[in-house]
Amino acid sequence: MTQSRPPHPGRSRTRRRRSLRGASLLRLRVGFLLIAMVVSVFAVRLFELQGIDAQAYAARAQAEGLVHVTLPATRGSITDRNGIPLAESVDGEMIVADPTLTSAHAPAIATILARQLHLNYFAMLQRLQAPDTQFQYLARRVPAAQARAVVQAIDAKGFSGVTTRRDPLRDYPAHDVAANIVGFMNDQNQPGDGEELVFDKWLTGKNGRATYTESGGNRIPLGDNSVTPPKPGHDLHLTIDRDVQWYTQRVLRDAVEGANAESGSAVVMDVHSGELLAVADDPTYDPNDFTAANPDDLGSRAVRDVYEPGSVEKVLTTSALINAHKVTPRTKIVVPPVIKSSDHYIHDDVAHGTWHLTLTGVLAKSSNIGTVIADRQFRPKQLYDYLRKFGLGSPTDLGVNGESAGVLPPWRGWRQINQDNIAFGQGVAVSAVQMAAAVNTIANGGVYVSPSIVKGRAKTSDGRVVGSDTRTRHRVVSAKTALEETRMMEAVTRDGGTAPMAAIPGYEVAGKTGTAQRVNQQCHCYDGTHTVSFVGFAPAEQPRFLVYVVVQNPRNGGFGGTTAGPVFKQVMTYLLQKYGVPPTDVTPPKIPLEW
Amino acid sequence: MSSSVNPARSRAPRFAEAAVARARLTVVVPRHAQKAPRVPFLVLVSLLLVCGIGGLLLVNTNLQQGSFTATALEQRAHLLDARAQSLQMQLARMRTPQRLAERAKRLGMVPTSNPAFLRLADGKVLGDPAPAQPADAFRIDPPPVPKPADLNPSPLVVTAPRGGATGAASGDHGSAAGTKKSQHQRQGSAH
Questions:
Q1: pLDDT at A92 exceeding the cut of 50
Q2: Last residue of a domain, one of A179, A212, A237
Q3: Does A220 lie in the same domain as A312?
């Protein structure tokens, strides 16, 4: 207010003052301009911060001290039919070291690690002293409790630089039992093979999330706090019985090694439900130590590998013939020493003169020629249709990795030699589970039951629903035919049959041996090696279990009856004992083998 | 403020001076100036303030204490959970059929070769019971891993020449027998 009051100074002074005032005014104006410029820069920045980037900065301010934690979902267990885990997830941790901190006390730390975790002292020493790095793995997939105890012990001695990090651990408590089916998780915690791979999505849960503000390792009580709990994965229940699986694997291993064979498979099936109680393969591996395994052993040979079944197939051919009323178990057949087929000659395993056998005798002695003579009453399509109904040439759809459909060539292309060969199990390829399910049709009174290895139902990663709940049944041969075929198969394990070694004292056992020529994958020819097998079920009057044993390339010259038969006997004996199946008092009528 | 004086007032007629004087406004002074005591009020406000701040502090401290306890308990729960898991894992491994079979085998047991049953209803024996035989046993351990060729060299056969050289060699060997140390000492003294 006082500034605006006009002053009354002298004229000369006024001029001087004016020039002075002009200079200060100028300065003022320049000053104001400068201030205005600076302030406008601030204003622009302020507008930028508050108006444009406000959201981002607010978020950043919030993130300060905010912790996001992933709450890992537990992977479902894989259990046997009684709920005993074959694969389960355990909290695991990896132990890592920062060599820049540990190298000074390496020997002392290595001693603790070696004593408590049984690690190699010298390997630990080397890693603890590794130059030019701040990260070294000391041990992986250690159970969390153990890992923490070790790190605590190291910390307690005043050594720093050894820490733990999360490293999920998948434990297979039974080691190699059912490893071929269950599969394994690799060191990246990715499924490697088996059910772990096929049912990965089913087993994997959904990770949860926790967000909270943290300070000094403690949650700030009134800060942001939100938790989405993890969703654990589903468990997968198999129809496998762990004890039966173990027993079968050990008996099979003994036999495969005893015969100096390439490999072997054994399938144990519940006759009525089609559930697989054991699917054993040898050689196999320990999924806890999968890196030591031969890559060929990782999958399940019993579902993956196909081979020519040989004489076991005669069960299917003869029952089809009986069902079509072409023959009866007592049909008399004259078996010459050799028979011509197209431009080939078919022989029997043992050289013989002319035999006078009944159809039962043909089966009991496993005569190729006799089977061919009987089968020639069929047109190709008839045999083909029966074999398709028995499940040959179509996948079993168990939900196991690498399932094979086998090979059954279409009947239109068959020559005489093709049909003759297929009648006794050559020129057709099956997987062990497929063949077991086919023969199980006879044990189950003529009704085919689709085999299953998953109890209940479960969804595979590619969206198929499989399991015992989705089993299908269809009649292939009449109940009467199945009974007659069973009577014929009983003759196989009696004296005069090919497999008296498979007989179980006190029980009637129906069975069939097989000795087939193997195709060499390199030359696509029969290279002189064999596949020997035995299929059987007991008790024959009221079948409960079916056991199928296949041994590939026994180098000791064994046959189905001598190599696979004893395995069948041991496994079946165990089954009958374990499940308490007493023998029946019925003595079935014996059909003559010769005439 | 001075400019805002009402000019009409100064030009008021003098004749009504007394009335004007009477009518002039005066400040009414209350006879008993009752001043409210300030101290209780201040005390009340201070008390409220202190209580509020103190209470807030207490609640916060309490919450924070709770948070510490929660963290500690959570850690303990994790630890116990991990311990339970690893114990369960150990138990699962102890219960495997392989381990049980090994222990049974050590007791001299073999698997049965003839399943037979005793029916309690009439005491009848079903099946053909037979005593277990040592031959019923089969191997349950994995086959021994063959030694790699490097660790299992074929034996080197050296035919010792007959004569004086043998005696000298054996004498040398005899004196060298003992600890490594003595050998080193011997070498040292030889230099």
A1: yes
A2: A237
A3: no
CA distance B88 to chain A (A): 9
Q: What is the dihedral of CA A433, A436, A437, A443, to 10 degrees?
A: -160
Count of alpha carbons within 13 angstroms of residue A405, beta-carbon side: 7
- Say if residue A182 is in the same domain as residue A317: no
Say which residue the tokens 């089913």 belong to.
A202
| Distance from C-alpha of A151 to C-alpha of A419, rounded to nearest angstrom | 70
Is residue A343 situated within a structural domain?
yes
pLDDT at res. B3? 46
Beta-carbon separation of B98 and A175 below 8 A = yes
Cα B64 to Cα A222, A226, B76: the distances in Å are 9, 18, 18
Residues A36 and A96 reside in one and the same domain: no
- Which chain A residue has its CA at the smallest distance from B73's CA? A218
Domain that holds residue A28: 18-63
Residues A177 and A197 in one domain: yes
Q: How many of the other CB atoms lie within 10 Å of CB of A477? A: 25
Task: State the Cα–Cα distance between residues A67 and A74, nearest whole angstrom.
Answer: 22
Tell me the whole-structure pTM to 2 decimals.
0.79
- Per the structure, how many domains does chain A have? 3
pLDDT of amino acid B44:
94
In contact, A567 and A251? CB cutoff 8 Å: yes
Tell me the backbone φ, ψ of residue A268, rounded to 5 degrees.
-115, 125
CA-based end-to-end distance of chain A = 145
- The CATH code of the domain that includes A325 is 3.40.710.10
The domain boundary, picked from A217, A237, A257, lies at: A237
Q: Looking at this predicted complex, what is its ipTM?
A: 0.77
The answer to whether residue A24 sits within a structural domain is yes
Q: Is the dihedral of CA A539, A542, A543, A544 positive or negative?
A: negative
Judge whether A265 lies within some domain. yes
Characterise A378 by phi-psi region: left (phi > 0), alpha (psi -120 to 50), beta (else).
beta
The answer to whether B97 faces chain A, any CB pair under 8 Å, is yes
Q: For residue A233, what pLDDT is reported?
A: 92
Distance between CA atoms of A7 and A14, rounded to whole angstroms?
Answer: 10
Same domain, A182 and A284: no
How many A×B Cβ pairs under 8 Å? 108
For B97, name the nearest residue in chain A, comparing CA atoms only: A243
